[in-house]
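DM between two lab members

TW: hey, do you still have the Helix-turn-helix transcriptional regulator entry open?
JB: yeah, one sec
JB: this one, 262 aa:
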Amino acid sequence: MPPKGHEKAVRRSIPGLASLPRPVYGRTESLPNRALTRRHSHPWVQLSYAICGVLEIHTSAGRFVAPPQRAVWIPAGVPHRVFSSPHTEMRSLYLDCSVTSWAVERCQVLAVSDLLRELIRRFSELPVEYAEDGPDGRLAQVLLDQLAAAPQVDLMLPLPVDSRLRQIYRSLSLHPEQATTLGQWSQKLGVSEKTLSRLFLRDTGLTYRAWRQRLRLLSALPDLERGERVTDVALGCGYESVSAFIAAFRQQFDATPGEFFR
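TW: and the structure you got?
JB:
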């Protein structure tokens, strides 16, 4: 996945739809390899969801991460790229703006309840041109009602705008395990530590330390979802001990890694 970026990704095609065949349209896709799409946008809302695997949606504002039981809401017209871990089973929804008047106009990660998950599964099995005035149309309406009620979860890394901070982001995305301090970055970039600290707060709303911790923990999610040992994941993203990793994970996500993926 791009945060660690060592495996080569397969470029994934974007469906060439001129318009949606129905106000709610489901798309099923199996992605055996790590995949990415080019930067693009849609004239409709997209819900990127995977029943297994981890999705990342990158916009100019941030990285939105969706392991199973979470999905990313992408408003119409927002340029984005989609990254997926190997062996991802996608069940995306495309929604006409006429049926999402209740929605916020920004990307966000949503919690997917058991009921919403099963509704998405069932909807993905319907014919493309299902009867809107029959049971299938009513199923689509229940699905929309559940999406409107889905709570937002904090699985987003805000991205800095400043070009110097972008250098830090690119470096840490490839190697989240590195322990470079803000003082060391200031020497490399030829700017004072105080200035970098102020820029991080301005661009991300977080201190450098808190922002780096969130980047590390979000980067760990694909490996944890694949079932890799917590010890290996903790060391791979820069933590000196499993206990320190679990404590940071619990602080960020209000759950241990085992509870998070259960």
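TW: got it. The domain at 160-261 is CATH 1.10.10.60 (Arc Repressor Mutant, subunit A). Residues 208-225 form the longest helix (18 residues).
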